[in-house]
Design brief:
The complex is a heterodimer. By secondary structure, chain A is an all-alpha fold. Chain A has 2 domains: 45 residues, no CATH class; 237 residues, MetI-like (MetI-like fold), CATH 1.10.3720.10. In chain A, helix 4 crosses helix 14, helix 5 packs antiparallel against helix 9 and helix 6 crosses helix 13. The longest helix of chain A has 37 residues. Chain B is mainly α. Chain B folds into 2 domains: 62 residues; 219 residues, MetI-like (MetI-like fold). Helices cover 72% and strands 0% of the residues of chain B. In chain B, helix 4 packs antiparallel against helix 11 and helix 11 packs antiparallel against helix 14. The chains are: A mainly alpha, B mainly alpha. At the A-B interface, helix 2, helix 4, helix 5, helix 6 and helix 9 of A face helix 1, helix 2, helix 4, helix 5 and helix 6 of B.
Chain lengths: 310, 309
């Protein structure tokens, strides 16, 4: 650097200039954080203790909303649906993403072409994914059951049978697995080749190399994909809402697809129970934080981080 | 970064290690080579089948949009009686041109504002050293994990109080204040710049703004393009916020409009699936075009996201 030798500015003045400039550059974020993150978190905490319909001022009701939540069968249903979906979708999604990434990694020069094919569906707006779910997974005429029929399997009524609604949604979510595949593929390409050579010299076969070299080396990326996807699964909204819930005054709805955020959304914006919906939001916040914390704790034991790379 | 990098991983044992190790018996090597070629054929076959499975729903959708109502569910690849009728019908039964225009405006505003504001903030975090920078950036990372549903209602109340509910302002104006994910992404790129050009320019009397705008921004153009494209996709495809903030049909974005079309013509309504299918195609195609216009950036951006996970 050698800047001390040339500069005429005193270090403290320079430090002050750095601080002023730095704070000036990050000031949009500071304002945004205070207004659109910090304040909403506290305010929704306050609202959750009130009865509020937007039209009249909030009236303080203490813990009433939380008591109501504990007794609300719809909350229990929504939580249960969301939990079932998450437990089903996350492992499926991560395993499929990993399998596709491993295959792509073996494909050599052709991998760019296939990567595109896996990524393109990710661009589809989730509303349109909801439409495709209704059409392709239609129990009677759908392409999925036609394909299953061709190999002698009698496909279920994916979109109407309550037992099959969540598996249908989980399968359709795989369609947007492309981003996770790209992340995992990038991690695979970062694994030092020498490690594989060493393992080969020691006589390790493909499966053993994958288990003892590949998986530990990409465990950071796997963990990232798992956490991000878990948070997303807990907030499942658009695909299920598009396919199974009517806006406005149409009333078709499917209890099996009543996910937590859908219930929150309807309580808040259809029923204008803003206080109650805020309490629902807080419960979701706590649940997601707990799950993420558990995942972090588990990752301490399972994830291998190569010392700071930068 | 590209596919080429993947090749040495497989090719290495054949030639790469030859320099140091002892030469292998030729028969052994030929056998290994044949086995690897077998594996390659198997892998490419599997990938071809899977790629078809992934792309087919899109092809199915486009094909269905050219079929008359009775043949939507015939699952044929090529329409038996191809027709443009559906596109005329959908154009008459829903103000799609208006919705496309609305979405284009919202998307352009959302992507532009978030790119500029996030670049400023990322540069502040990447280039300047000041007390509290570390903890503040920790807060940025923490907000990335914050579930959007938690702030949904208070944020709605802010826009309600300001009188913007029913307009497109709540769909993009929040982007004026940077977004944690893009700050993180752009900071990665800014950090990779060497400091020397900036110190030199500073000695020549350049202002801090000039350093950012004339040196840092041009050097990180790809990262800015990535940010713009990501946000364009997120903004174009969003349903939740248009559901919350838009009430008048004339202000709808296409996904919000498509939801209205599903409600009217879909399972709960008149069961005119050809209208729903065609509206879905019209909603989706701009995103496919966007992807092919910026494919390189999408892939690079996503790969960077996970690299520091």
């Amino acid at each position: 650097m050698g800047r001390e030798a040339v500069t005429t500015v005193r270090p403290s003045a320079r430090a002050r200039r750095e601080r002023t400039a730095g704070l000036a550059f990050i000031s949009p974020w500071i304002v945004g954080f205070l207004v659109f993150t910090a304040w909403p978190i506290f305010y929704s905490g306050y609202l959750s203790l009130t009865d509020y319909d937007v039209l009249t001022d909030p009236s303080f009701v203490g813990l009433e909303n939380y008591e109501r939540m504990a007794a609300d069968p719809q909350v229990r249903l929504a939580l249960w649906n969301t939990l079932q979906y998450t437990v089903l979708q996350v492992p499926l999604y991560v395993v499929v993403a990993l399998a596709l990434a491993l295959l792509l990694h073996q494909a050599g020069r052709a991998s760019g072409f296939f990567r595109t094919a896996f990524f393109v569906p990710k661009m589809t707006p989730p509303v349109a994914v909801g439409v495709l779910l209704l059409l392709l997974f239609n129990g009677e005429y759908g392409l999925v059951n036609e394909a299953l029929g061709a190999i002698g399997i009698n496909g279920p009524s994916w979109t109407t049978d309550p037992d099959w609604v969540k598996p249908g949604l989980a399968l359709v979510s795989l369609w947007s697995v492309g981003a996770a595949v790209v992340i995992l593929l990038a991690a695979l390409q970062d694994v030092p080749v020498e490690l594989y050579d060493a393992a080969r010299v020691d006589g390790a076969g493909w499966w053993r190399r994958t288990r003892t070299v590949t998986l530990p080396m990409i465990s950071g990326a796997l963990f990232f994909v798992t956490v991000v996807n878990t948070i997303a699964a807990f907030q499942m909204f658009t695909e299920a809402y598009s396919a199974y819930f009517g806006a406005g005054n149409s009333t078709y709805a499917n209890d099996a697809a009543l996910f937590y955020v859908i219930y929150l959304f309807r309580e808040g914006f259809a029923e204008l129970h803003m206080g109650y919906a805020s309490a629902l939001a807080w419960l979701l916040f706590v649940v997601i934080m707990l799950v993420t914390a558990v995942q972090l704790l588990v990752s301490r034991r399972l994830v291998y981080y190569e010392g700071e790379q930068r | 970064m590209t596919a080429v990098d993947a090749v040495p991983a497989d090719a290495a044992p054949a030639g790469g290690t030859g320099g140091a190790g002892e030469p292998r018996p030729p028969a052994d090597r030929r056998q290994a080579y044949r086995r690897r070629r077998w594996v390659r054929v198997l892998v490419v076959t599997a990938l071809t089948v899977l790629a078809l499975v992934f792309v087919y729903p899109l092809i199915w959708l486009v094909s269905a949009s050219f079929k008359p109502r009775a043949e939507i569910f015939d699952n044929r690849l090529v329409p038996q009686h191809p027709t443009l009728e559906n596109y005329l019908t959908v154009w008459d039964s829903a103000p799609l041109a208006l919705w496309l225009g609305n979405t284009l405006v919202v998307t352009a505003l959302a992507a532009t504002t978030v790119t500029v504001s996030s670049a400023l903030v990322a540069w502040g975090f990447a280039h300047y050293r000041f007390r509290g920078r570390g903890p503040l950036f920790g807060v940025v990372l923490a907000t990335m994990m914050l579930p959007g549903a938690v702030t949904l209602i208070p944020t709605y109340l802010i826009w309600h109080r300001l009188g913007f509910v029913g307009t497109n302002v709540p769909l993009w104006a929040g982007n004026l204040f940077a977004s944690a994910f893009y700050v993180f992404l752009l900071r990665q790129f800014f950090l990779s710049l060497p400091r020397e050009p900036f110190e030199a320019a500073r000695l020549d009397g350049a202002s801090e703004w000039t350093l950012f705008w004339r040196i840092a921004v041009p050097l990180c153009r790809p990262a800015l393009v990535i940010t713009f494209l990501f946000e364009a996709q997120a903004s174009w495809t969003d349903l939740m916020r248009p559901l919350v903030y838009l009430q008048d049909t004339a202000t709808f974005t296409v996904p919000r409009g498509l939801k209205a079309v599903i409600d009217q013509f879909g399972p709960g309504g008149e069961s005119q699936w050809e209208v729903v299918v065609t509206a879905s195609v019209i909603t989706t195609v701009p995103m496919i075009l966007l992807f092919f216009a910026g494919q390189r950036y999408f892939v690079q951006g996503i790969a960077t996201t996970g690299s520091k996970g």
